[in-house]
Amino acid sequence: MAEYITSGDSDEMGNVIFFNNRGNKQLSFDFVPGSLQLDGTDAVTYYVDETRPSGNVSVEESTSAIVASMDTWEAASCSELGITRIPSDGRPTGFYSALLGFGGSFSYVADVVHGGWLPGIFFDRLRPNGSRSILGVTFTIIYVDGNGNPVDTNNDNKGDVAWREIYYNDNFTWSAGASPGFDIETVSLHEVGHGLSQAHFGKAFRTTSNGKLHFSPRAVMNATYSGVQTTVDGTDNAGHCSIWGNWPKN
Ligand SMILES: [Zn+2]
């Protein structure tokens, strides 16, 4: 499965309400504690692939932004994730990039892998016009049984996650903080929300007269970018805590 965030000015979003996700703020798949964690620990590990840099932000700046977003989720007071970075060492990463012919590796690297920036044509494979509408995407790779059905070893009614990987669309202009461009930390914070099993949340409206977006509530987990947002608000925190508040007991 894949969750993506759009740039907010793509035509196919159409007119008034273009998304409305008021579910339980959780994806239907989640990590499981203990032996099924591929690294054998309950800590959430992550890796930043620095071999696929953005076309217009330095690797140093983009990695700093990604690390900052990981630190923001780690700082949530309701959870003890033990988020740990595995140092970048140039190894190939990316199950989905490998699958779609953009290089990579089918091997486990970390629980959450930032696979770097890929060309627009990768995103066209995800949905029509994806190269011009999708900013970033998070893939969830799950365990299946011999019949291809999701495995749920801890009976939490969520399929067991092997790992997640995040890609950014290099067809857009990116920035580290200042405009113009899409802020890397903001998009990373959103994608890592998916990486930590949160779903989209909130309604977006476009005012026809001036084309401006309005959000209700505005949240990191809105499905559309709406400017720099590098802190988690109440809605995002509640969604996070509902998933991770008891980890690793759930
Ligand atoms: Zn998203």
Number of helices: 6
Identify the overall geometry.
globular
Q: Could you give me the name of the CATH homologous superfamily?
A: Collagenase (Catalytic Domain)
Structural domain count? 1
The description of the largest β-sheet is: 7 strands, mixed
Structural class: alpha/beta
CATH topology: Collagenase (Catalytic Domain)
CATH class descriptor = Alpha Beta
**Contiguous runs where pLDDT drops below 50 for at least 5 residues:** 11-22
What does this molecule look like?
It comes from Neolewinella litorea. This is Peptidase M10 metallopeptidase domain-containing protein. GO terms for molecular function: metallopeptidase activity. By secondary structure, the protein is α/β, with parallel strands linked by helices. The protein has a single domain, classed as Collagenase (Catalytic Domain) (3-Layer(aba) Sandwich), CATH 3.40.390.10. 21% of the residues lie in helices and 24% in strands. The protein has helices at residues 59-74, 95-99, 120-124, 130-133, 184-195, 234-244, and strands at 2-6, 17-21, 29-30, 45-48, 84-86, 112-118, 134-142, 159-169, 174-175, 182-183, 202-206, 213-216. Strands 1, 3, 4, 5, 6, 7 and 8 form a 7-stranded mixed beta sheet that branches. Strand 11 (202-206) and strand 12 (213-216) form a beta hairpin. Zinc ion binds at residues 3-5, 190, 194, 200, 223.
